[in-house]
Description:
The protein is mostly helical and about 220 residues long. About 75% of the residues lie in helices and about 0% in strands.
Amino acid sequence: GKDDEEWEVELGKRVRCLLRRGIAHTRLGMLDQAVLDLDAAHKIAPDTDKLKDDLDSLRSAIAAHPYTQHKEQAYQAFKRGDLQDALAAYDAAIQADPGCFQALSNRAACHLRMDDYAATQADCTNALQLLDPSGSYKTKLALRLLVRRGTARCHVGDFFSGREDFKRALLLDKNNKSLRDDVEMLVTTTGAASSLSEFMGSALPTPKSTAIAALEAAGVPSPLG
Length: 225
């Protein structure tokens, strides 16, 4: 409902908010997030030369940052299966940028591959806290962290906590059959339960049940009567 002038003012406000958050992320050492903010601001105002120059300068600084170099070394080592080298490089990346939850998440995956379940849980918990201190956990990265931590918890017999992690992960992506199959295989092989529904303690929502619940919430009678 805004006219062109009002919309231009609104976009200007969004650009300023993104820039301020990008500066805050930079000062916190959260460089990847800073680039995302500046990139989003540049998409809104692509003709702003100053903004483009700031984005280019930040990307150059990030490419030269020790964190970026260590993270790339860790990624390459993990990809070729050299877990010890990957772990050492992730350690160095986190030391260079303690606020980077992506590196913590990747190190958690490394620990999980090495069957170090205590370290996996610690890294996942720290990454989730950095990712979202509110605890709402609604991103794809949060889903991966919950699955990794839930897996580690099940492997050490902490099935109650593992179930809570998997339940939150599955509710984030209700229609992910691959995720359900992976969780079911894990819970049955670790002895957590004989089936996914038994492990969860209740049936997980299906697309059909979710749609019916939405209709009922809107006051529309269920088509099933």
